[in-house]
Amino acid sequence: MRRFGWTLDDSSFRTGRVSLFDAAGMDSAAMMCALVGFSEAERTMAIVLGVTASSQRAVLVGMGFAEVLGDDVTLEELAVRAKRLVTRSAYLPRFRTFGRLRIDLLGRDAYFAGRPLDLNPREFTLLWRLSDSPDVTVSKPDLIRDVWNMGFIPETNSIAVHMSRLRRKLSDVGLPRIIETCNTGGYRLCVRDLAHCHGTTLYAVPDPLPQEPGVRKANGRGNPQTGI
């Protein structure tokens, strides 16, 4: 893969990165046991290799895996398919869905179980920015830069005021603790437990394309490891 301009990395899943899973030599039960641990976001950027049975490939595609290939795929084909996934990940879909919380990026509002939150523009942009990196802390400087378009932290409590209003609206629809204040002063959108609670795996929209394409390779247990 390096010959085709890719870098391999053993870090955990990040949006915008492609995961490779080699299922060659695994029986059906072992393969499914390993792959069921992939979240919906991971599946949309995962290529599963070595699946020879057409029926198994159909099942995995139905589970949301981006590509499911046999054992005859060439490196050239694999590189092209991986590049296509990265390119596709740059397109921003209209909705982001976390359990029953649905963020409408075009309509610039959010809904819980179909009920609108009636967010004002700043509240919506804050929620949008936090949803860029679900379950990851976003610092105050990042919020100031990305939401207020400022390069410095002003001597005001504007973030706290707007965050308080956003939290109140989320609390009103039954999500009182979905935004967490971190010890560093940043904020985190806590959606993983919410997604599991409501029977829906979180869907995370990919970040902008990395400067160099990266591939995360997983072994038969679904854990990242450095590949060739």
Detailed description of the structure:
Residues 93-191 bind DNA. It comes from Novosphingobium colocasiae. This is OmpR/PhoB-type domain-containing protein. By secondary structure, this protein is an alpha/beta fold. 34% of the residues lie in helices and 18% in strands. The strands form three sheets. Strands 1, 2, 3, 4, 11 and 12 form a six-stranded mixed β-sheet that branches. The chain has a four-stranded antiparallel β-sheet with strand order 5-6-7-8. A two-stranded antiparallel sheet has the order 9-10. Strand 9 and strand 10 (187-189) form a beta hairpin. Helix 5 packs across helix 7 (158-172). The longest helix is centred in the middle third of the chain and has 15 residues, at 75-89. Residues 195-214 and 219-228 have low confidence and may be disordered.
Which descriptors apply to this entry?
OmpR/PhoB-type_DNA-bd, alpha/beta, Arc Repressor Mutant, subunit A, 34% helix, 12 strands, 2 domains, six-stranded mixed β-sheet, 228 residues, DNA-binding, Sig_transdc_resp-reg_C-effctor, disordered C terminus, OmpR/PhoB-type domain-containing protein, four-stranded antiparallel β-sheet
